[in-house]
Design brief:
79% helix; single chain; mainly alpha; 304 residues
Length: 304
Amino acid sequence: MQFIKFLLKRIITIIPVLFGVTFLVYVLMTVAPGNSERTALNKARTPEERQAVIERYGMDDPMIVRYARMMRSLFRDDSGRASRIITKMRVHLPHSLRLCLTALAASIVLALPLGIFAAIKQNTFFDGMSMLISLLGVSMPNFWLGIMIMLVFGLHLGWFPTSGSSEPIHIVMPAATLAFINMAAIARITRSSTLEVIRQDYIRTARAKGVPEHKIIWRHVLKNALIPTITVAGVQLGELLSSTIIIENIFAWPGVGRLLIQAINSRDMSMMIACVMVFAVCVSVINLVVDLLYAVIDPRISLN
């Protein structure tokens, strides 16, 4: 019962988040120069043409009414069928989710062992090299890394195609770009949290009792070090979603990020709002999943 109440409460909080984010974007796009409504109004040469444009777009209505009308058009067209935006999201959203989840899985698989062994081998050559790699990953801009990966492995070596999404091999370079930067942050926090847990009294007690080192690491250290790691992984997944806006355009990946850039270039306000809404929902769901994982890993954490 407590789990259901927590879940419902968090789902309800997503609603004002979506409203605030989408309304803010709508206001900014409305007052910004170059949007379709202002362009049509500026092109009108006579008062009759200006009045026709105002009536066509409902520009004399309050902004909240125009916002509500625009939001309704995101889901249904005038004939009651699914709008073009819903149709496009059905095509593009799975590609973005596949890219982000692949990059997240790869980064976690690489970052957890890297961070743990760096903590175990503290102040050794391995520790220094792992932290150097992490520092490079945190410092490099994702667009620069994506271009370098494309130049080296796509153009010069010819190992992977530089664009497309029809085959599994197409996802390798964009996912590797996202995974490397994500891995760097997760590895750093994993190392820090592992070092903190290793120095606890119960770890020293387990060693004094003669418990094998590998059992101490996997049964005691890793479980207790995962809480901050999960937090960072959740934050990084949200950053992955924002990074896809650039990476999808570099590798011509047909996801929501590329769709958003196309909507900005064509001044398609409805499509921009829809893309922002998708990102906001994904980030809210990620935060919800992270909170639920806390209670799964550590039963002492209650869901309130």
